[in-house]
Amino acid sequence: MGVVSSSSKEKVLEAAITLFQVKGFHGTSVRDIALKANVNVALVSYYFGGKQGLLEQLNVQFLEGYIQAMEQATEERLGQSSHEKLLAVMEQVLLYEQQAPSLARLVLREMTLDSTLVREIMSTYMRKEKHLLETILRQGMGNQEFRKQPLDLLLLHIRTMMTMPFLQPHYLRELYQLSVNDPSFIKRYMVHVNDWMAACLLKKPIASSRLVIHLDS
Amino acid sequence: MGVVSSSSKEKVLEAAITLFQVKGFHGTSVRDIALKANVNVALVSYYFGGKQGLLEQLNVQFLEGYIQAMEQATEERLGQSSHEKLLAVMEQVLLYEQQAPSLARLVLREMTLDSTLVREIMSTYMRKEKHLLETILRQGMGNQEFRKQPLDLLLLHIRTMMTMPFLQPHYLRELYQLSVNDPSFIKRYMVHVNDWMAACLLKKPIASSRLVIHLDS
What we know:
Pfam families (chains A, B): TetR_N
Number of domains of chain A: 2
Structural class of chain A: mainly alpha
Keywords (chains A, B): DNA-binding
Protein name (chains A, B): Transcriptional regulator
Largest sheet of chain A: none
Helix content of chain A: over 70%
CATH topology of the largest domain in chain A: Tetracycline Repressor, domain 2
Number of helices of chain A: 11
CATH class of the largest domain in chain A: Mainly Alpha
InterPro entries (chains A, B): DNA-bd_HTH_TetR-type_CS (IPR023772), Homeodomain-like_sf (IPR009057), HTH-type_TetR-like_transc_reg (IPR050109), HTH_TetR (IPR001647), Tet_transcr_reg_TetR-rel_C_sf (IPR036271)
Distance between the termini of chain A: 48 Å
Order of helices and strands of chain A: HHHHHHHHHHH
CATH superfamily of the largest domain in chain A: Tetracycline Repressor, domain 2
Strand content of chain A: under 5%
GO molecular function (chains A, B): DNA-binding transcription factor activity; transcription cis-regulatory region binding
Oligomer: homodimer
CATH architecture of the largest domain in chain A: Orthogonal Bundle
């Protein structure tokens, strides 16, 4: 196959993201991807073992970074309150999604399916996500920061808040004139999230000044 | 085309729901649908004008009922509190989705796309949904039941809570052992929703006895 610039690989990934969104996974051929990326068809198979391999690669790439963003946010806040940890995790995930909104949407959409790939993703990345959030919530309930309540629906609620805007960006834009790609969107959204947190999760309200400091940092 | 039993039409719709979910819209041919429904290929075109027509029919059919469920819930509670209206709307939408979970998932998944069909759906059904929820929220804020807060993110939050379980049923099942098709699921979920409502929306908490009566009715 000879020497191939790493940008060819990137071009193939970019082309796949676009085409999977527009024509769907089943409606996109390897030939379409190669054509759009302006590379040889054989290259796609060589690098990714075909279309399914490409989809897997896109999912894994996104979700590795997704979990990393969550882990980093908690690690950076070692010793801080569970409330601050959870806020940081949610904000970092949103910022991460905002960096690659098309890829985020592709992966989040994929996860609404019931495929072998999704089952594999769930048994690895989604289990990690669940464990990470559960740990923060249990700590917060243990140290009297959070109100005691059943974990399952609470976890799902938090996860949905972190992903909804990037799964339905056009819906937010068309009906609510909210652009998820606008940097100010995440700040505004985090105010709403924190409002939810203060009302539904925290035992005692915190001083609003601390919130402002967090959101501006 | 002669006399065709209405069940043939139903069989085509059922087959399309299944195939669109498994193979995707682009990966499904009219021939696949006819084969699965055990009808003549020409029948699919005759009834629905092809695959795109079928998808539109499924979306419109689901969303007509979806909006109807919301409207009926509010009409039945004329003169009752905004809180009771909103609870009823959310519960009725969930019950409606539970009646046809595969179709619900298909339509909710479709709505995460940015297609011509979705833009048409948004300008009709989603605009109606938004108006209906907005009316309840404005009333509730006006009559001092609900806390004043920006409408856009609040509306999105409510909409997401109504749709999330049926967009990701396998996720809830695999990771949280929650079966959205179980009748008890909606009761449990509505307790969580009402918990959110009491904390984030209501100005004053209501007596919990009223909530129990509502959920058992």
